[in-house]
Amino acid sequence: MEANLTAIAVAETWDNGKPIRETLAADIPLAIDHWRYFAGVPRRAVFGIDKHTVAYHFHEPLGVVGQIIPWNFPLLMAVWKLAPALAAGNCVVLKPAEQTPWSVLKLVELIGDLLPAGVVNAVNGFGVEAGKPLASSPRVAKVAFTAETTTGRLIMQYASEKIIPATLELGGQEPEHFLRIRCVPA
Q1: Cα radius of gyration rounded to whole Å, the chain
Q2: What is the CATH number of the domain that holds 23?
Q3: DSSP per residue over 127-183, as a string?
Q4: Cα torsion at 115, 118, 120, 122 (round to 10°)?
Q5: What is the pTM of this model?
Q6: pLDDT digits (tens, 9 = 90+) for 27-40
Q7: Residue 74 lies in a domain
């Protein structure tokens, strides 16, 4: 990503209209930090807690992980899903939002030569054409979805029909609560 900052920033701007300077100053540096963090995670498999306790962390890949990316932060959200899945040894099928596919496709193109063929794949299309088959395929071991609640319900339904674990990050599921606090003199 560092070697292709401008190309990635232009693709992100073309996709969603975000200023290039914002992508260069925020999204891409955060994405690069995420890659670096997860590149180091697999090396940390044994931890000494104290002189009598050792914790082992075993990395067991699930297989193929389907990841459905939202429109609002396509590049950053793709990396947030892609980096941990790859670090855990999984293959990934990314489905970018149909409104903003270009930066995700550019990312897949740029990392394509760094990984064995078929480890990272991208599919394009509308939800029923691409998202539903991805979320309901018996070849997919896990589905990760970020977007709005209505589509999230459908993804959960599609995945549950084949008993595929799904992680759903849905808009509006955690509303803030404001409380009126009244100060009473002592």
Answers
A1: 19
A2: 3.40.605.10
A3: IIIIIHHHHH-TT-SEEEEEE-HHHHHHHHHHHHHTT--EEEEETTSS---------
A4: 140
A5: 0.83
A6: 999 999 999 999 98
A7: yes
